[in-house]
Amino acid sequence: MIAPALRQTLLAASVLVSLQPGAALADRVTVFAAASMTNALQEIEQLFEADTGHDLVVSLAGSSALARQIQQGAPADVFISANSDWMDALESDGLIEPGTRVDLLGNRIVLVAHGSDAAPSDIGQISPELDLAALLDGGKLAMALIEAVPAGIYGKAALSSLGLWDSVAADVAQTDNVRAALALVATGEAPYGIVYATDAAADEAVVILGVFPEDSHPPIIYPAARVAGREPQAPADFMDFLRSPEARRVFEQQGFTVLDP
Asked: What does this protein do (predicted)?
């Protein structure tokens, strides 16, 4: 049996803990985010946890895989997609909390090669005049899944718009997400690949050969939203943090374009 004096001391201590800033509100936030955000979210995770006391758990994969997991009931609090279509799909299913969706970031897609001396790096903006098939010379072009993953969808759209797709379609090596495509090029398993500019900047083993024109593919937009039916406070804190000056600095350093609300 606890003595009255000790009981009073324990009660006072529990009250003191409950009054600590953020103690009662600290919670876990599970974020499903596009693989191309890997480096940015690693830094943002530390900043957010230090700022709020919440525990941030980040699951990174292709936007299509993450969206399907949410459709199947995966316990995500926040979803950040690398294109609008997968967010639209979840919204039409009633799986996005109304009024929480924002267009967060923009990006570019680029042609990359393995190693700094793999090919000339002065292509600049890619045009229909580029003989990509000759550049491949029997090698593989690494891309994320062209019918499902945003980076692959954007890449195929750009190649098709420029009239280059048919000449290289048979040489495309598809991967589950854009970071896997980047890894194929970085390790030399594929000499060339199409990835986001932010991915290319994150790996010194690849060099950017050229940038695809913005009008050759749909706009690259990363929407973020809270998943419906989840505890609102901590996910709302994270959504607010994504718009903070600290997060903006991280995104811009990684090469993203921060879209103003």
From this structure: Involved in the transport of molybdenum into the cell. Part of the binding-protein-dependent transport system ModABCD.
The pair of structure tokens assigned to 12 is 């006072």
Which CATH superfamily, name and number, covers 109-216? Periplasmic binding protein-like II (3.40.190.10)
36 is in an annotated binding site: yes
The annotation status of 222 as a binding-site residue, yes or no, is: no
For 92-130, write each residue's pLDDT tens digit: 999 999 999 999 999 999 999 998 655 545 567 899 999
Report the predicted TM-score, pTM, of the whole model to 2 decimal places: 0.84
Question: pLDDT digit string (tens) for 27-44?
Answer: 999 999 999 999 999 999
CATH 3.40.190.10 in the chain, residue ranges = 25-105+221-258, 109-216
* Residue 63 annotated as binding site: yes
Rounded-to-integer distance, Cα 196 and Cα 112, Å: 9
Per 3-state DSSP, the chain is made up of helix, strand and coil in percentages (nearest 5) of: 45, 25, 35
Residue 178 in marked binding region:
yes
